[in-house]
Specification:
CATH architecture of the largest domain: 3-Layer(aba) Sandwich
Number of helices: 14
Structural class: alpha/beta
Distance between the termini: 17 Å
Order of helices and strands: HEEEHHHEHEHHEHEHEEEHHHEEHEEEH
Largest sheet: 7 strands, mixed
Number of domains: 2
Oligomer: single chain
Bound molecules: pyridoxal-5'-phosphate
């Protein structure tokens, strides 16, 4: 925490520090209001939100259409449980399937739950449809993956800290280097039921795989009867300049996993999406969630998806992202190694010799730009997709000096 925090801020920081588990290391800013691309702290200072809650806010803070849908639904019914039906879940799942081009969807709440759902679905499909021997199913994952924090999901993490002290782990996962088609092909065997992959690794540091990687691994999956599972929780719903990042290579996954922006920053809504061949392995009692598919979440999900489509956020992300990335690359800085990304999912990689990315993010905060380092060396820029070009231009005039080292506590 920065020692010079203002008194009111200091109080909130100290209180949270006292009462919260220390499982995060947030920037020392305490927010109390958000609107569109802007947030305000308890001192009344205004910031541009360039993290957008890890892409859960693609539609911006408190989008009016999403708030209206939530308010309207709150006046009717908010929770039924799946013991009864409600009038929002069916339309929500139909709209989600129609937008993504699949036959069925299973609604959950957090991203990790949707990933767990996909893992269970593909394992059972492996036994029932592919004919894998009991308890032998393997899912191939990539080095640098991030798919959530449950015990099973951290079991296949390659990040030591995510696992340390949390064993024993769930077996049945095999790790291959991200972006390496040959390594993937070599890892496939008769027990392989699925390939779980992020089209761009977000938490891994905005890592973009080589062109053709998704298409080639998709082809191998089809040939070897392996389910291609795309974790699009962060890359999906417009973030990378297409509705789904797999669209860049015309790849249709077997299982599509979405979350984050599906709840429009208002409510946790996620889903595993697939055709009947996969989804029909689930029978009543196999899987579930008390809140999954609840009418408030479904109404919010419908509105969130509608905003993304109606406001053409994928196209805006593509156009603005390409321009913004060019501008970032044009900044003459001794500290920047390179800039990478797609659409408005952008990583600025800081040279190891210039130290970690954290002090750059602190300097950005002092200039009214909220961004967060990921994977030590990378500053991630991923603002709401509703952002305008003028706002990005103004942001650039603050970002450029910081990238050149202005106000950065370099060690
Ligand atoms: C954030 C994220 C998750 C986990 O979502 P939660 O809602 O935090 O459980 C899974 N996969 C990817 C790619 C993510 O970015």
């Amino acid at each position: 925490m920065s020692p010079e925090a203002a008194p009111r801020t200091r109080e909130f920081l100290d209180e949270a520090d006292r009462w919260s588990a220390h499982n995060y290391k947030p920037l020392p800013v305490v927010l109390e209001k958000g609107d569109g691309v802007w947030v305000w702290d308890v001192e009344g200072r205004k910031y541009l939100d360039m993290l957008a809650a890890y892409s859960a806010l693609n539609q911006g803070h408190r989008h009016p259409a999403i708030l209206d849908a939530a308010r309207e639904q709150m006046e009717k019914i908010t929770l039924t449980s799946r013991a009864f039906q409600n009038d929002q879940m069916g339309p929500f799942l139909r709209e989600l399937c129609q937008a993504s081009g699949f036959e069925k969807a299973l609604p959950m709440n957090t991203g990790a739950e949707a990933v767990e759902t996909a893992i269970k679905m593909v394992r059972k499909w492996g036994y029932q449809v592919k004919g894998v021997a009991p308890d032998q199913a393997e899912i191939i994952v990539c080095t640098g993956n991030f798919s959530g924090r449950t015990t099973t999901i951290i079991s296949f993490s390659s990040e030591g800290q995510y696992k340390e002290g949390f064993g024993p782990f769930t077996p049945g996962f095999r790790e291959v280097p991200y972006g390496d088609v040959d390594a993937f092909e070599a890892a496939v065997n008769e027990n392989t039921v699925g390939f779980l992959v992020e089209p761009i690794q977000g938490e891994g540091g905005v890592v973009v795989p080589p062109d053709g990687y998704l298409k080639k691994t998709r082809e191998i999956c089809s040939r070897e009867q392996v389910a291609f599972m795309a974790d699009e929780i962060q890359t999906g719903l417009g973030r990378t300049g297409r509705l789904f990042c797999c669209d860049w290579e015309d790849v249709r996954p077997d299982v599509l996993i979405v979350g984050k922006a599906l709840g429009g920053g208002v409510y946790p809504v996620s889903a595993a999406i697939a055709d009947s061949e996969y989804m029909d392995v689930f029978r009543p009692g196999d899987h579930g969630s008390t809140f999954g598919g609840n009418p408030l979440g479904a109404a919010v999900g419908r509105a969130s998806l509608k905003v993304i489509l109606d406001e053409e956020l994928p196209r805006k992300s593509d156009e603005l992202g390409s321009w913004f990335m060019d501008e970032l690359r044009a900044v003459d800085s001794p500290h920047v190694d390179h800039v990478r990304g797609k659409g408005l999912m952008i990583g600025v990689v800081i040279k190891k010799s210039s130290g970690p990315a954290r002090p750059f993010c602190e300097a950005l905060m002092d200039r009214g730009i909220l961004a967060k380092e990921t994977h030590h060396q990378v500053i991630r820029f991923a603002p709401p997709l509703t952002i305008g070009k003028e706002t990005l231009e103004e942001a650039l005039s603050e970002i450029a000096p910081v990238l050149r080292g202005d106000g950065v506590a370099l060690d």
